[in-house]
Amino acid sequence: VVFTLPRSFPHKSYDAVGLEGRVSMLVQLAAANPRFAVAVSEGGLFIEMARELKEQAKHLDTPVILCGRDAAERIVAWPYDDDNPITRQLSEYRLLAASRVGTYQPPDELAGFVETIDAEWDDVSSTAVRDAIAVGESWRHLVPERIHAEVERLYSRSRFDSRNARSR
Fold it and tell me: Is the pTM of this model over 0.90?
């Protein structure tokens, strides 16, 4: 399993905690399992990430990219150019969409390329963690214990407020 973050997103920017902080948390989590690795992608689109991964891991046939329902909807509806439609992209990787506030239902023409995880993943949300910290609510139950100290350091309420990352 390779946890991959893009150097920059095509649709938004990193919030109060940038790429380096997020990589730091992932590295700490990945250290718990020798089958986990962390990577940073120069490209922000899933197709770019999949191609970079295949270039680095030559033995990999077809990467599977896991995302939430909301991201799956955005990826499928993204305004790609005519030379690189989502149907062509999904011939290079597969999409695994986790149910978050509903289950993703891919269009019929993409059904063979997209799988869904039906278990509810609503509680897995970095936004919920950031929002809880911002208003001083309990958040530790939302993240693995292994990164509690790092989350505290990166998202401390005073730091969060001082960077004015989110409007309330």
Answer: no
